Amino acid sequence: MRKISTVITGLLAFSVVLAACGKNNDNGASSSPAASPSAASPSATTPASPSSDTPETTDLTKVKATISIYYPTPDQTEKRALEDDKIKRFNEVYPNVEIVKSDWQYNPNEIGIKMGANEAPTLFNTYATEGKFLAEKGWAADITDLFNAYDKKDQLNPILLDQFNIGGKIFGIPQQGYVVGTVVNTKMLKDKGVAVPSLDWTWDDVLNTAKGVADPKKGIAGIAPMGKGNEAGWNWTNFLFEAGGEIQTVDGGKVTAAFNSEAGLKALEFYSKLKEAKVIPGDWALGWGDAVGAFAQGRTAMVIAGPDGPVDQALNQGGMKPEDVTVYPMPAAQAGGKHTGVLGGDFLVINPNATKDEQQLAFQYAVFDYFSDKGLASTEESIKQRKTENKYFVPPVIQYFKQDSEYGAKVKAVYDKYDNVYQYSNELMALLDGKPEAQFNTQEYYGEMTKVIQEVFSKSNVDLKAQLDVAAKTMQDKFYNNIKS
């Protein structure tokens, strides 16, 4: 079995699927920013040690304070129920703290306004691309002291933690993560007499499989790459990575666009092949919800995303069975190549405008269920509840804890008790190769590439290299040249 990439070392022992975030891993604003209310803390009844710059005599159970926390949106009824239970249990330990629920979803276009008006929650959700941005803007509290005083810090998953480790300082609390993959309706393939490819597949396998299953006259696509919103650029970037390309290079403080490379051209040529082969939807302008919805409805055989969203919708809304839905890694550009997918994740950030006491309490709330039996019990109750509703539970592919840890084994044991928990295979986990998104102006880059992809999908004989060069020049002139080291 192939060794897993060093980026996701430790996942092999824990086969699971990715949990959807508030953005459903759509990356329309980036990597899936949903809080995972069932995620867990030190012992739910044992407060972590205080920060080193706060007197150790401070008793946080006696500090009168109000903190506002990220609260799932109204459509996430199950997550709200879990969060309500967590608030109740937190207040049993900290009856002195008033918890205010905020359903504001992080938006890079709104965070500056929120901070300027002092309206940002004490604890808010964000995603993997935003660590450096928030730290440099002063919109995320430096929680290094709180982190260093946390007795479970060494058990947190470094794959995620590193995303908010900026210059040796910690600015975010990891919740869950994912590596983008391709979710395949294998039942559709079998029904059409199309061979089910190996998990160790290639771009050619994707194209041939899509050709075999597509039926344009019936509105059935072989694959539905996203074509609108920043999701389109996000989807395509996986192919850029697989071809060995980079979004940008950083040297001596200078940021340079790098996606208009031979690798970028190769990735765009593959998109052109998909379009010319008529295996993408006729109405290709699909956002995350459109593409995932098409998959759940059986209108496309394949969709590219953080796996949890498509799997959850296919099983719980589309009526599919676990054996009908297979999560693949992203295809390698050629046989023997890496199955590289965008690495993303969900994080909680503490408002730097909050007082030291409020910041400490927000940290305590964020990790309240981490590594605890209460957190484990909460997860199991959620699985049981889903079973009574004849629904499946789809956990994250990358959890806040190290997957090969003692706690990871406990979680896996809970999953194994129930037949309604969707789990990844060890083979898949061994093939996954995660690569973080760009350090600078990720969303603007995705937006520029979306324009290019729309040109490719809507027109014939497009000068692909010229399109890439225009997008690169725009990014360079408007954004990268303005970055100060």
UniProtKB/TrEMBL annotation:
Keyword set, alphabetical order: Signal
Region (Disordered): 27-58
Keyword Signal belongs to the record: yes
Signal peptide: 1-19
InterPro entries: Bact_solute-bd_prot1, SBP
SUPFAM superfamilies with a match to the protein in the record: Periplasmic binding protein-like II
Compositional bias of kind Low complexity: 29-52
Any Pfam family: SBP_bac_1
Name of this chain's protein: ABC transporter substrate-binding protein
Taxonomic source organism: Cohnella soli
